Amino acid sequence: MDFIGALSPVNIQFMLQGFLLTIEVAILSIAISFVISILVGTVRYAKVPVLGKVFAVLVETIRNLPLLLIIFFTYFALPEVGIKLDKFTAAVVALVIFESAMISEIVRSGLNSVEKGLIEAGRSSGLTATQTLRYIVLPIALRRMVPPMVSQFISLLKDTSLAVVIALPELMNHVQIINGHNINYVIPTFLFAALLYFAVNYLLSIASRRLENKQA
Predict the structure, then answer these.
(1) Which residues make Cβ contacts (< 8 Å) with residue 53, sequence separation at least 6?
(2) Taking the CB of residue 21, how many other CB atoms lie within 10 A of it?
(3) CA-CA distance, 39 to 100, in Å (whole number)?
(4) At 106, is the secondary structure helix, strand, or coil?
(5) How far is CA 132 from the centre of its chain?
(6) What number of other Cβ atoms are within 10 A of residue 16's Cβ?
(7) What predicted TM-score, i.e. pTM, was given to this entire model?
(8) Measured between alpha carbons, how far apart are the two ends of the chain, in Å?
(9) Among 56, 92, 57, 59, which Cα is nearest to 74's?
(10) pLDDT in tens, 166-208
(11) From CA 168, how far away is CA 191, in angstroms rounded?
(12) For the chain, does the N or the C end have fewer beta carbons within 10 angstroms?
């Protein structure tokens, strides 16, 4: 093991550049997934005719597929039907598809957790079903969804490493490049990558626990 050579300023900078792209992919995927999952989860909760059932089938199908397969599909299969995505876009699209399905279940569960008495109180006060959902159910449910959503976001950040299979220049791709120059760099660079993932995910875990304590 060559810690000095592996963790030289040049190599550290190169790995941090990859980690920056990892964070960019994660943030963009989280933002888009959140919006889509709110829509999908709400439609399924409201049991909208036809659309609710279509979303249910899509969600259950995607949740039972490996993320790696979805990444391969977006990057290698879509070009066969005329849709060619660059590596960054393909990774984001794959993560959004997978995470939207996962998070939409959190949204649906959160909405279902709102007490029936609150819903009935809203309706009896003159609010329509849509207004009750918007002003009473959704705000309460969103607060309850935060901890499990943060946990899912942590998983998403870790899942970005799977994009190494399409050579997206994220952290693990840069680690592999460095290791290709010297086999003695493998353990030090993997440990450094693990430290970066751990640092960010640990901070998110702390934030999640604090939110749970506030809601307790």
Answers:
(1) none
(2) 20
(3) 10
(4) helix
(5) 29
(6) 13
(7) 0.90
(8) 47
(9) 92
(10) 999 999 999 999 999 889 999 999 999 999 999 999 988 888 7
(11) 20
(12) C
